[in-house]
Amino acid sequence: MQVVGLATVESQLILASLLxxxxxxxxxxxxxxxxxxxxRADGMPLFPIKxxxxxxxxxxxxxxTRCAVAxxxxxxxxxACLGSLDLLHHFSAxxxxxxxxxxxxxxxxxxxxxxxxxxDPADCIAFEDSENGAKAxxxxxxxxxxxxxxxxxxxxxxxxxxxxxxxxxxxxxxLPRWFPTAAAV
Length: 185
Prior knowledge:
By secondary structure, this protein is mostly helical. The chain is built from eight helices and five strands, in the order H-H-H-E-H-E-H-E-H-E-H-E-H. It has two domains: 34 residues, no CATH class; 126 residues, HAD superfamily/HAD-like (Rossmann fold, 3-Layer(aba) Sandwich), CATH 3.40.50.1000. Helix 1 packs across helix 2. The longest helix has 20 residues.
């Protein structure tokens, strides 16, 4: 839970410490990579799609709303994950943790995503599932809709959030109000 939403380098340091050192971390990473290879060989997606995500993205696309991904994962990982879920076509821009000096909770990823969309960050709504991601989007000057995943955000994030949802299914009815004209996410 300590590494949710953090950049890879920061996550590696924390996980190595928790696992008892770099050797234990490397062993665990090797095991996970082998497991992911088996799952890919079975035709399973690398990661399950978030509930409501496909419907939500299709609704945004139908409204002409351009979307970007701002993730602490590497650009390659982002595209592999979204490609395995057949979701790449919904996004106009990508900003990965490997493209900025500091990843979430620093706002650099969100600022880069907005720049690549050609929009002011204040005109964006970020949909976030992690505390560090919400902090980053807020620091970038964006409105933030929190959709908790592994852990619920603290009160300090909920209080500053534009909205908090139980799943992306709940977002679709809000789209006409949140995006009255084509905008960026």
